Amino acid sequence: MKHTINEIQIHYTRPVLSEMIKVVKSSDAETVFRAFIDENRMDYKEVFLVMLLSQAQHVLGVSEISVGSTVGTGVNTKEIFQLALMANATNVILCHNHPSGNLTPSSQDISLTTSLHTFGKMIGVSIVDHLIITSESYYSMADNGQV
Fold first, then answer.
1. Residue 15: pLDDT above 90?
2. Fewer CB within 10 Å, N- or C-terminus of the chain?
């Protein structure tokens, strides 16, 4: 019986530095995330996104991790770190919307952020913020001392 073994390679090309957006505060991150969230779904379905950042806080990319229902969405934590490692990201900002309009983080939001922060530290990827966005406003866990 003959077995085939595939070679696995990582290929990465950094975006052109002069064309990269820099995120220095939570409002910068909110602006970037709002460009990726469909406003027509904002009050209807919960969406979870991740922003990948360089050491200098330049945006390497944004990825939609999941889309759920009005009351929640599942988050594939493995995918978050796969993306971060593949993009050579040093920092990550998490984001999801609350269709209810309530900006208060749920216990699940806090628990997920804490778990991701703990694991990220082990592999050199920092969770620097977790934003909750509604149609009207946003909430930054970092600005409120929760990251």
1. no
2. N
Strand order in the sheet with 138-140: 59-67, 47-53, 91-97, 126-133, 138-140
Instruction: Give DSSP secondary structure letters for the chain.
Output: -------------PPPGGG--B--SHHHHHHHHHTTS-TTTTTTS-EEEEEEE-TT-BEEEEEEEEE--SS-----HHHHHHHHHHTT-SEEEEEEE-TT---SPPHHHHHHHHHHHHHHHHHT-EEEEEEEE-SS-EEETTTTT--
Q: What are the chain's domains? A: 19-89+97-140 (3.40.140.10)
Give yes or no for residue 51 having a pLDDT over 90: yes
Decide: 65 and 76 in contact? Cβ < 8 Å.
yes
- pTM for the whole structure: 0.89
